[in-house]
Design a protein that fits this description.
It is a single chain. The chain has about 500 residues and is α/β, with parallel strands linked by helices. The protein has two domains: about 325 residues, 3-Layer(bba) Sandwich (FAD/NAD(P)-binding domain), CATH 3.50.50; about 130 residues, 2-Layer Sandwich (Cholesterol Oxidase, domain 2). It has nine helices and 25 strands. The strands form six sheets. Strands 1, 2, 10, 11, 12, 13 and 25 form a seven-stranded mixed beta sheet that branches. Strands 7, 17, 18, 19, 20, 23 and 24 form a seven-stranded antiparallel beta sheet that branches. Strand 14, helix 6 and strand 15 form a beta-alpha-beta unit. Helix 2 packs across helix 9. It is globular and about 65 Å long. The two termini are about 25 Å apart. The structure holds flavin-adenine dinucleotide. Flavin-adenine dinucleotide binds next to strand 2, strand 4, strand 11, helix 5 and helix 9. InterPro entries: FAD/NAD-bd_sf (IPR036188), GMC_oxidoreductase_bact (IPR023978), GMC_OxRdtase (IPR012132), GMC_OxRdtase_N (IPR000172), GMC_OxRtase_C (IPR007867).
Length: about 500
């Protein structure tokens, strides 16, 4: 009997920051039928920049239980909606630095990725050597004169302390204090769902299905033949010649393990069949730990929902200091913290986390252990970041808007430990000789055929800046690699190309 027709040439799993880009770019070729499946709802409204709709009752975010460090557990959110985490985030759209890409494979050196950073954006304020002026994502900055008083007092304090002014934090190795580049227009966040996907929706070769959860990739031997999904309680196989996983750093690692790709011992212990033993799936992920300092404001400064959560930052020596423009209670519905805060984040941490499966049921969330501040170097770096932040808080310039840190300082120095929600690198790219690499430098899953990953999972090391702009760049580059077509056989079994 002949094999049934595929439902698509390519299935893109996950319509988040990266998935919307991949679906839009791949469907620009009218000869390729693309199906995008997204677990969350569709959304055409990017939402005001100053509100993060990720609180406990959100219908556009998923929450996961995590352990930040031994004895310190919490929950984290990811966007679960077209546009993904980029549709619910802070709108801080900053590139990885030139030096970040030195630890990526040669094909992803800064000179190789720069054309894709330029292609994805319209940033007319920046130097044209580094910036694009006709890409889908608008990048803007708030003028110093229009900033919230907390942001401008913070920049003045940084300058008074001797830090340089960085007018464009998206220049290759920009450091210092400056305005945050934002993927926003007139106080509204622009996600890749609005910038890339919506303009492509009229194409007859692109279908988008929302509210559908992928359970696993299905293989015939090592060849992917499609994706198993659950629709209205019924399991179905959606067939395709190629599957591109864009389910995010949590979702993609989770899906790969449920598809039989991961540490063989772990999968076998749960009774899951092993298709390819890849010990690196879920291992050594990175994120940016953040400790916040509460302070006493002199006055309540009016802010509306279109005011960016962060308008300015200081980048120095692997530390990012974040003067939030409002207490978290005003930013995230359902959160109770009413203190204004300065965030101190480690942007090049040593400590690495691990994601494993909780059970053989794909509906169960994974186990996520960050192991934050487990390295002595990270604890020392965080202490010096907190000292620096206290110095800025007590400076004359910041004193215009606030007094010193709130009395009754935490007894434990890292008491207010949280995460930047930048989890990346659960399926890192590397050479095929590297046992811990999960994808090769073209982002093809090693050891099988027909599956690629194009999202923040593939970062070899989390960038030393927020990952959103880099997620879009990865999606642009992987789409171009797929469109470029042929690539040599890459796995030990000698099987064909993706
Ligand atoms: C609240 C918040 C604030 C943040 N702020 C910033 C910021 O200001 N700047 C910055 O640079 N970064 C920020 N980040 C991080 C940044 O947004 C993410 O790193 C980035 O968007 C991740 O892109 P992605 O494509 O890898 O995954 P996502 O954008 O998370 O997309 C994954 C998509 O896959 C879908 N999916 C998952 N599993 C399945 C499945 N089994 N079947 C079908 N669909 C599935 C999800 O619903 C989701 O839509 C923030 C993140 C959060 C959550």
């Amino acid at each position: 009997m002949p094999a049934p027709d595929p439902v698509a040439d390519v299935i893109v799993v996950g319509g988040g920051s990266s998935g919307c880009v991949v679906a839009a770019r791949l469907s620009a070729n009218p000869d390729r039928a693309v199906l995008l499946i997204e677990a969350g709802p569709g959304s055409s409204d990017p939402g005001p920049l100053g509100l993060l709709p990720v609180g406990p009752r959100s219908d556009v975010a998923a929450t996961y239980p995590v352990e930040l460090r031994p004895g310190r557990s919490t929950t984290i959110s990811r966007g679960r909606v077209l546009g993904g985490s980029g549709a619910v985030n802070g709108g801080y759209f900053i590139r990885g630095t030139e030096s970040d890409f030195r630890s990526w494979p040669q094909m992803w050196s800064y000179s190789q990725v720069l054309p894709y950073f330029r292609k994805l954006e319209t940033d007319r304020a920046g130097d044209p050597r580094w910036h694009g002026d006709d890409g889908p994502m608008p990048v803007t900055r708030i003028g110093r004169e229009d900033m919230h008083p907390v942001s401008s007092a913070f920049l003045d304090a940084c300058e008074a302390e001797g830090f340089g002014y960085a007018a464009d934090l998206n220049e290759p190795n920009a450091d210092g204090a400056g305005p945050v580049p934002l993927n926003a227009v007139a106080g509204r966040r622009i996600s890749t769902a609005s910038a890339y996907l919506e303009p492509s929706l009229a194409r007859p070769n692109l279908r988008v299905r929302t509210g559908i959860v992928a359970r696993r990739v299905v293989f015939d031997g090592v060849q992917a033949v499609g994706v198993e999904v659950e629709i209205a309680g019924e399991r179905r196989l959606l067939r395709a010649r190629q599957v591109v996983l864009c389910a995010g750093a949590i979702g993609t690692a989770h899906l790969l393990m449920h598809s039989g790709i991961g540490p063989a011992q772990h999968l076998s212990a749960l009774g899951l069949p092993v298709v390819s033993d890849r010990p690196g799936v879920g291992r050594d992920f990175g994120d940016h730990p953040e400790v916040t300092l509460a302070y006493r404001p002199h006055l309540r400064v009016p802010r509306d929902e279109h005011t960016a959560v962060l308008e300015a930052v200081l980048e120095t020596d692997g530390i990012e200091i974040r003067p939030y423009t409002a207490p978290f209670a005003e930013i995230i519905p359902g959160v109770l913290d009413a203190d204004p805060r300065l965030g101190v984040a480690l942007m090049r941490p040593d400590s690495r986390g691990e994601l494993t499966l909780r059970s053989s049921d794909p509906a169960d969330p994974p186990v996520i252990r960050y192991r934050y501040l487990t390295s002595a170097a990270d604890r020392a770096a965080m202490r010096s970041g907190l000292d620096l932040a206290r110095g800025l808080l007590t400076s004359a310039a910041f004193g215009r808007v606030a007094a010193e840190p709130r009395a009754g300082s935490p007894t434990e120095p890292f008491e207010n430990l949280g995460t930047s929600l930048h989890l990346s690198g659960t399926c890192r790219m590397g050479s095929e000789a590297d046992r811990d690499a999960v994808v090769d430098d073209r982002c093809r899953v090693i050891g099988v055929d027909g599956v690629l990953v194009a999202d923040t999972s593939v970062m070899p090391v989390v960038t030393s800046r927020g990952p959103h702009a880099t997620a879009v760049m990865i999606a642009e580059r992987v789409s171009a690699l797929i469109e470029g077509g042929t690539s040599p056989t890459h796995d030990a079994q000698g099987s064909g190309r993706v």
